[in-house]
Amino acid sequence: MKELSLSQEIDLHIDRVQDFPKEGIQYKDISPLFLNSELCTKIVRTFADLSRGKIDAVCGIESRGYLFGVQIARELGLPFILVRKAGKLPPPVISQEYNLEYGNAIIEVKKGYIKQGQRILIHDDVLATGGTASACAKLVQNCGAEVSQFSFILGLSFLGGIDELKKYTQDIHLLLEY
């Protein structure tokens, strides 16, 4: 029997939920990945290998970006920086507002956590339109750091998010694309 590629293995563990969160959308749920610790280890090691020697810290985007982001940072022996929705972190914080399809949102990071000149990996679970990851990249740049890489478990390529992120770096990793 032929061994599956990592992307094939991930795909087998993605639940497809029709008409969620609204009619006409097929939601890709990564939750089943966490039932397979061996697969999670492969994912973390793959991301770590892609980043080794290229980054100084990992920024994980709330909340599902934390699930693998903190493990990637630990695997590399690097700091993990929480990027949260507005109002979740105690002051002082640095904020970045961005547009969503249904309004505006704000993400924040603790002041001083992202250091001047650091090379940052921005990690999240899914790349859709790229709006949140792009806002995180602006936040990183506003702190005087460099966006070195982006990483995502999966990308919804038909939404064009990868093009949005190429403004910051060409080093963008998606383990699975739909």
TrEMBL record:
The gene is apt. GO terms for molecular function: adenine binding; adenine phosphoribosyltransferase activity; AMP binding. HAMAP family: Aden_phosphoribosyltr. Homodimer. Its EC number is 2.4.2.7. Pathway: Purine metabolism; AMP biosynthesis via salvage pathway; AMP from adenine: step 1/1. It catalyses: AMP + diphosphate = 5-phospho-alpha-D-ribose 1-diphosphate + adenine. GO terms for cellular component: cytoplasm. It is found in: Cytoplasm. Keywords: Cytoplasm, Glycosyltransferase, Purine salvage, Transferase. Its main location: cytoplasm. This is Adenine phosphoribosyltransferase. Residues 45-169 form the Phosphoribosyltransferase domain. The lineage of its organism: Bacteria, Pseudomonadati, Bacteroidota, Flavobacteriia, Flavobacteriales.
